[in-house]
Every structure is written in structure tokens, then in C-alpha cells.
Specification:
single chain, N-terminal domain of TfIIb
């Protein structure tokens, strides 16, 4: 499931030469993955689980893992290794992901960030405000397979847009994000790079209408305009004109105002693209419910970020398994099956997609009349 040659190459690149008796990167990754997939809550639980399966260490290629060695590795080994591993696993998943449901062939990404609350007494380095501590998980979700393509972990005070500026998106990509990313200058930069973006307009935005477009026969589309900003920033930086679309949701009757730099696609397509942004919210909900990213095995910043990146790597492994097997089972069902059969020696496909054969008739329950 994990490309070992690439794994070892990354280990040499990030860690260099280490002591031969030190806990290896591979042993650390396997131990933390067991904690994620088996739902272990502490270093002691992981140690006991691995010791109970000591015969599997040879086949897994791991050392004997003690809780002190694992805790020390989480504290001292740079979490950036798992960030690099995450990128490798994402590229491998991309070869097997299903396409998003839109007609265009461009990549579609949803950008968002989610706060993870912490205890101020245990994690004073993650000071968010005077009452609590928190860090923020930033995700760029690829809609081909709904897998994370970009990831970053920062302190809770850092804005989402600051991380989104650092990511290198494929040429011609479509980005969808909420009003937390509303920086007119950044929108301008995305347009100059040939990227398409869709978001909602600020309530206090100052603009004037340049052109009014026909809304068509769809009653949900209330307006379709070309606008240019007239605020103070528009005078200091040359902002491109944008498209403003009014949309009334027929189910909730709520009215939304979208803006985009795409003037060619239909207004319905733009509204549907923004509606798909909800998938990144579902992603955050899934990993918080099914992986260990809310309770932590260490208290240092590096230990916390290591655990989060291993969780994201495990998510990509589960997605890869689902894509390669073409299983109809959900990721939640797959992780539950793995949790109860983690060390069972049986074919994965038999576990994920059991073959339901028709039961042969029980002849003993039939009464046969035999003529002599």
C-alpha cells in the first residue's frame, strides 16, 4: 500500500544518517497508522497493540516499538517528512480517481480551513485567544475523488488566504472558496495566472455595473452582471472586472451573490460549482469523526503536526484502496472493517466486498418420496 522505495528516499532526504538503533521512520509511520486505523488513544495503547502482534513485525518490516521511543520520535523527527509523503500519496491517488461531475476537464479544488481546539494548559504554544488554544488545518480538496490535494497546519490565528497563496495550483484549475478568502489583490493574481475562481461577494463591496446579461429561463438566476470595483483599493491596484451572479436557492429560498472571473460558463454552472464547496466541509467532518485529530499523543507542536499529517496520509491510503478496488463500500465502512480486522491475514477484497453467493438448498429439510 505504501511505496517503500519512495518512502526510504524521503527519509534519507529529511533525516540524513541516523543511529542504527533509533526508531526508524517506517516503524514510526506504522505505529501511528495503527493508532489511527485501530482507534488507539494513547502511546501505551499503541505499544500494547503492537506487542500483541509481535509475529507481524517481521512481515511489516518494523522494529519493536516502545511508547518512550515513539514519543521521542514524534517530538524530535521533523513532521515535514510526512508532508512530503502526503504529496507522494496524493500523486499516486490521482492516477485512479474518478472525475468530478462537471463537463469541463479542468481540475476543481475547494479551499477551506478548520480550527482544532486544544487545552490552553496542555498546549500553551497554540494560544488562540485569552480563553483557548487552537491550531488550524488548511485543506485544498480535489473534487476528483474528493481527496485532499493541499494541506498545511498553522496556529489558529493565521488566516486561510495566507496559506492558499503558497500553494501551486495546476494551470487552468478552478478554485472555489468562501468569503474568508476575499482578497481583491489575490483574485487579481489568480486571474493573471490563468486560474478560474468562484466565491461570494462581500456585503460591503463597492462596485458599479458595466454590463447586464440576460438571466435565461431559470428562475433561480436573479441577475448576471459584469462589475468593476470602485473602492479605494481599486484606485491603487488595477483590478480586473468580475462577473456578479445573483442566485436564489429553490430549496431554502436563500439568496446568494457569487462573483467569478469566468465570463463564458452559464450562471447555473457557476452556482453549482459553489454548491460543491460543501464537500470540503464534509471532509473535515469525516476526518474529525473517524481519525485521531482531536486528541493527541504528544504536547509539542511537532508531535501534533506529525499526528495530523499521518492521519491525512492514512486518508489517502484508504482512498487509494477504494479507487483501486473499485469498491462500492464507503470510506467509513472500509475503516470500520479495517479496525476490527487490522491484523487478520485475509484478502483485502474479500474483506471490503464480500461475495454473496446464493445458499444452496438444504436437502435435509426436504421430504423426498421415493417409489420402490
Amino acid at each position: 500500500m505504501v511505496p517503500r522505495l519512495e518512502f526510504e528516499r524521503l527519509g534519507n532526504q529529511h533525516d540524513g544518517r541516523r543511529r542504527s538503533d533509533a526508531l526508524s521512520r517506517w516503524s514510526q509511520f506504522v505505529a501511528l497508522s495503527v493508532g489511527q486505523l485501530a482507534g488507539r488513544t494513547s502511546l501505551r495503547d499503541i505499544e500494547a497493540t503492537l506487542q500483541s502482534q509481535s509475529k507481524q513485525h517481521y512481515h511489516l518490516g518494523t522494529q519493536s516499538v516502545s511508547r518512550s521511543a515513539l514519543g521521542r520520535a514524534n517530538e524530535t523527527l521533523d513532521y515535514a517528512f510526512f508532508l512530503s509523503l502526503f504529496k507522494v500519496l496524493y500523486q499516486r491517488c490521482c492516477q485512479h480517481t474518478p472525475r468530478h461531475g462537471f463537463k469541463f476537464k479542468r481540475k476543481l479544488f475547494s479551499l477551506d480551513g478548520s480550527l482544532i481546539s486544544l487545552s490552553m494548559k496542555v498546549f500553551p504554544w497554540a494560544d488562540y485567544n485569552c480563553k483557548k488554544a487552537a491550531f488550524k488545518l488548511h485543506i485544498g480538496l480535489d473534487h476528483d475523488g474528493f481527496i485532499p490535494a493541499f494541506a498545511a497546519i498553522t496556529l489558529g490565528r493565521e488566516s486561510e488566504s495566507s496559506q492558499a497563496r503558497l500553494w501551486n495550483y495546476p494551470k487552468g484549475s478552478v478554485l472555489v472558496f468562501d468569503k474568508g478568502y476575499n482578497s481583491y489583490q489575490w483574485h487579481n493574481t489568480l486571474t493573471d495566472k490563468g486560474l478560474i475562481w468562484v466565491t461570494r461577494i462581500r456585503g460591503n463591496a463597492l462596485y458599479r455595473v458595466l454590463e447586464r446579461r440576460p438571466t435565461g429561463s431559470n428562475p433561480a438566476i436573479t441577475s448576471d452582471q459584469t462589475i468593476e470595483y470602485t473602492g479605494k483599493q481599486a484606485h491603487t491596484t488595477r483590478l480586473h472586472p468580475v462577473r456578479r451572479i445573483g442566485y436564489r436557492d429553490p430549496e431554502t429560498n436563500k439568496h446568494y451573490i457569487f462573483i467569478t472571473n469566468n465570463f463564458h460558463w452559464s450562471a447555473e454552472t457557476i452556482a453549482e460549482i459553489y454548491k460543491q464547496r460543501w464537500q470540503v466541509e464534509l471532509f473535515f467532518k469525516w476526518i474529525k469523526q473517524n481519525l485521531k485529530i482531536k486528541s493527541f499523543l504528544g504536547t509539542s507542536e511537532n508531535a501534533v503536526m506529525t499526528q495530523i499529517m499521518v492521519a491525512l496520509c492514512n486518508y489517502l491510503l484508504l482512498a487509494y484502496l477504494k479507487f483501486r478496488s473499485k469498491a462500492s463500500s464507503s470510506l467509513q465502512k472500509i475503516i470500520r472493517l479495517l479496525q476490527t480486522n487490522l491484523f487478520s491475514r485475509r484478502p483485502l477484497m474479500e474483506l471490503i466486498e464480500p461475495i454473496n453467493k446464493d445458499r444452496p438448498p438444504d436437502m435435509q429439510l426436504r421430504l423426498a418420496l421415493v417409489r420402490s
